[in-house]
């Protein structure tokens, strides 16, 4: 069993649970870029959350008032909010991957 875990530990680059210091861009560019990316990701996730909440409300109102078109719009809103949140979640990994490719 231990021989099966050795390649996984090698791929994980050490202990995955130990906190690591993030690498920033040098100088003032690093702090302002980190702030810009952090605020934009936070804003996008808040927008996804609001779209999900309003979509659920549309589903409830549409079903209770017997308006299937409103319920269908709510279902589409919930679905696209989840897809957008997943996309926002993958952005950080993509940015880090391309940054590492540029460094090597």
UniProtKB/TrEMBL annotation:
- Keywords, ordered alphabetically: Membrane, Transmembrane, Transmembrane helix
Q: Does the keyword Membrane apply?
A: yes
> Where, by residue number, does the polypeptide cross the bilayer?
36-59, 79-99
Q: What highest taxon heads this organism's lineage?
A: Bacteria
The protein's name is Integral membrane protein
């Amino acid at each position: 069993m231990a021989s099966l875990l050795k390649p996984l530990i090698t791929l994980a680059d050490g202990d995955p649970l130990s906190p690591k210091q993030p690498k920033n861009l040098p100088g003032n560019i690093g702090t302002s870029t980190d702030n810009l990316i952090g605020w934009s990701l936070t804003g996008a996730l808040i927008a996804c959350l609001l779209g999900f909440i309003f979509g659920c409300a549309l589903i409830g109102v549409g079903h209770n008032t017997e308006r299937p078109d409103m319920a269908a719009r709510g279902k589409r809103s919930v679905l696209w909010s989840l897809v957008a949140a997943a996309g926002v979640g993958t952005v950080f990994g993509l940015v880090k991957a391309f940054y590492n490719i540029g460094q090597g």
